[in-house]
Amino acid sequence: PPPQGQYPPPQGQYPPPQGQYPPPQAQYPPQQGQYPPAQYPPSQGQYPPPQPTYGPPPVLAPAQLDQLVAPIALYPDGLLAQVLTASTYYNEIPDAAGWSNQHSYLTGPALAQAVQADNLPWDPSVLALLPFPSVLNQLANNMGWTQELGNAVLAQRGDVMDAVQRMRQRAYDYGYLRSNQYVRVLPAGPGYIEIVSAQPDYYYVPYYDPLVVFARPRPGFFIGGAIRFGPGIVIGGAFSRWGWAGPGFSWREHAILIDRHPWERSWVNRGAYVHPYAVPYRRYEGPRVEHHELRGPEHYDRGERGREERGREERGRDGRPDR
Description:
Layout: H1 62-69, H2 77-87, H3 93-102, H4 108-117, H5 124-127, H6 133-140, H7 143-155, H8 157-173, E1 183-187, E2 193-197, E3 202-203, E4 206-207, H9 210-213, E5 228-229, E6 233-234, E7 248-250, E8 255-258, E9 261-263, H10 304-315
Antiparallel strand pairs: 1-2, 3-6, 4-5, 7-8, 8-9
Helix pairs in contact: 1-8, 2-7, 3-6, 7-8
């Protein structure tokens, strides 16, 4: 087993601050209404700014990459693909996180319409994460980690994907990573593990402590409670213009797939790259505008949970099991 304390990296380096993951003592899955509250970012301008990069990033060793991807390695493939691509536009993440929190009362087509109507200036890969406030907050609150992740995706994509697979294999070998009502854990060829949503169009964000799930469990430890899931986020056709028409990976070829096509932005072509979206996102000319009510922290409805419940109301009773 990896040495105790190796995953995640030393305190203050990578992992999101305490509060982003369920506390270690709460090892049992929460009951309805007991999900950890969404972590909302500080007011605009208080995020740690990204550091300027003047040359190619340093090459990271496998152990460093393992630590780098540990907080997100167990995300479903589609969500992980969007996180990796968005991390390469790390300077846009803080503003996107703030917008997502202020509009957390919007969901489904209404959220997609607001993104278009407000003429948001960020890259489509960042816009793709607006339905996931907690994910954007994790990235925005840890800009040093996010910037290093994005640079590694641009300069060492294959190595980053290999690190994800190493961490998944550890979690699987120790009994933590298993199929359940939220995700299916599938073999994707020798040495590769795929994680997909158990329900079409629904994504569940996993919450876990990397120090726990990537190490051998203690005797008597309840493995089944180490990974918890937030409520389901409905991602339908309204979000296809931001790369949600088939995101994932071709693990053997070391390819990130967006709309089932390889995403090939690199450190060399990062200034001119165009995403391979099936329905290209077209932003209107002109400045960003605001057409919707802005709600402060006292009105936040716990991010994803509010969106799931309203999304279920919009979709109606369609035969899906209640979650």
